[in-house]
Amino acid sequence: MGYEIKEENRDHAPLERGFLKFSLPVESFINSQIVAGIVLLVSAIAAILMVNLGWQNSYEALSTLKLTLSLGDWTISHSLHYWVNDGLMVLFFFILGLEIKYECLVGALSDIKDAALVIVMALGGMVLPALIYSSIIWISESSNAYQGWGIPMATDTAFAIGILTLLGAKAPRAAYIILTGLAIVDDMGAVAVIGLFYTEQIEVLPLFWAALTLLVLFFINILGIRKPIFYLMGGFFLWWFILQSGVHATTAGLLAAMMVPTRPYTNKVWFRRKMQNVIQDFQDVDSLGTPILENEQQHALAVKAEDIAKQTTAPILRWGYTLDKPVSLIILPLFAFLNAGVMLPTIIPDFKDTVVTLAIIFALVLGKGIGISLFAWLGLKLGAVRLPKGVVFPHIIGIGFLAGVGFTMSLFISVLAFEGQPALIEQAKLGILFGSLIAGIIGAAILFLVSQD
Question: Which segments does the entry list as coiled coil (predicted)?
C-alpha cells in the first residue's frame, strides 16, 4: 500500500530527485494489478522465441542444469526445472492456500448465499472442460492421452484478473470478486485433482511423518505462536516428507497455509491506544531541525510503532503480502519460462498429432465459457443463486470465457499428466497457449461489448 508524501516532507539524497522521475513510474507499474500477468506473458513468449529461433539446445541445457545441495555425505541433486516445479512452486501453492483460507473465512466464499454463485460457476467450469477433453480423446481413440483431462480445469488468476483490469471501468467491481472467487474454487479443484489423480505410488512412512508435522503446525497455531520461523521450519519438513511420500510436493504449500494463524496478537483498541502514546512521545522528544538520525529516542519510537503495527495485523494477510511480489514476479515467470518453451509447427500436422492440442483448446474455450455460463443459468433458474448488484448475465458469459485462461496451473498439470511423454507435453503446451489466448480475447470482447450497451 502506497502513501502520498508531500515534497516538503521528504529529505532527498543528492541525485534522488532526478532518479524519482524514472523510479516512480516503474514502482507504480510493479504495484499495479496487471504486472503479474504481463511478466508471465513476457516469460512465456521469451521461452517460445528461444525454442523457435535456433536456441532450443541452450533452452534445454538451462532447463536440465543440475543444482546440487550437499552436507557431508548427504547430497540432493536435481535439474533447475525440477527445483522450480517441485520446490519453488510450493510457495505459489502456499499463497494460493492463504487466499483460499481467507476467502472461506471472510471473503467471497464466507457467505453461502454469495458463495453459491461462484461455486456453481466453478463446478461448470471444471466438469464440462473435463468432459469435452475426454470426449475428444475417446472419439480419436487416443488411449494414451486420457490422463490429461485435468489440464483444462483450472484458471490462471493473474492473467484473468490482468485482462479484467485492462478493461477498467468497463467491468463492474463485482466482476472482479466473482472471477477471483471462481479462480480460487477452480484452483481448489485442480489441487484436489493433483493430489488424488496425479500422485505416484504412496510411501506410507513419509506420509505418516508429514501428517505428524502437520499436527505439530496445528498445535503451534492453537498455542498462539505467530513467529514465522516456526511455520517456515515446519513447512520445510512438511515439503520434504510429502516429496518422499509420492504425493506431489506442492501439496505441502496448500496444507501449510491452512495452519497459518488468522488472529493478530493484539486487538484494535490496544493498537489505537499504543500508537497514540507513541505519537505523543515522539512529539515530546522532537527537536525542530534535528534529523531522526541524531535523535535515537525518536528512532526507537518509530521502530516501536512498526512493531505495534505488526502485532495488530493478521499473519495470514501479512505473510501473504510479503510473499506476493517475489512469487508473482520471480517464481511464476521462472516457472512459465521453463515450462512454456514449445516448438511451433511450421506445417499443418496430422490429426493424430494434434488431438491433445485440439482437445485442450476446445475444453478451455468452449468448456469453460459454456460450462460456467450454463451452470450459472441453471442456478439462477432454480433460484439457488443470485447475481450481485451491477452484474447482468452477459457479464457472467464474459467471465466464463476469461476463466478459460488456464495458463500456469494448466501447464503445471500437463507436466504431471504426461510425465515421460514429451510429445504429448508439447501438444498440451500448444493447446494451453492457444486455448488461453482465444478464451481471453473472447472474454474481454464480450465484457467490452456489454459495457457499450
Answer: none
Q: Which of 358, 344, 360, 365 is nearest to 437 (CA)?
A: 365
Q: According to the model, what pLDDT value does residue 349 have?
A: 65
With respect to residue 299, please indicate whether it lies within any of the assigned structural domains. yes
Whether 359 contacts 136, CB under 8 Å: yes
* Strand partners for 71: 74
| Residue matched to cell numbers 511450421 | 346
What does the pLDDT read at residue 71?
Answer: 77
Q: Flag the least confident range among 92-101, 216-225, 245-254, 314-323.
A: 245-254
Distance (Å) of CA 206 to CA 48, 70, 211, 213 = 38, 21, 9, 10
**Non-local CB neighbours of 360 within 8 Å, separated by 6+ positions:** 133, 148, 151, 152, 410, 428, 431, 432, 435
Specify the residue for cell string 464440462.
128
According to DSSP H, which parts of 141-249 are helical?
157-167, 173-197, 204-222, 228-245
Sequence letter at residue 166: L
Residue 255, domain extent = 33-67+77-199+248-263+314-452
Q: Identify the three-state secondary structure at position 397.
A: helix
CA distance 240 to 431: 33
Cα(449)–Cα(453) distance, integer angstroms: 7
Residue 185: the pLDDT is 81
Considering the domain architecture, whether residues 346 and 412 belong to the same structural domain is answered as yes
Q: Are residues 395 and 435 in the same domain?
A: yes
Per DSSP bridges, beta strands 74-79 and 66-71 are antiparallel
Domain match, 323 and 414 both: yes
The b/e string for 276-290 (b: 16+ C-beta within 10 A; e otherwise) is eebeeebeeeeeeee
**Mean pLDDT to the nearest integer, 256-285:** 88
Please give the pLDDT value at position 2. 54
pLDDT in tens, 378-418: 998 888 888 877 788 888 999 899 888 887 778 888 888 88
Containing H/E element for 38?
Answer: helix 35-52
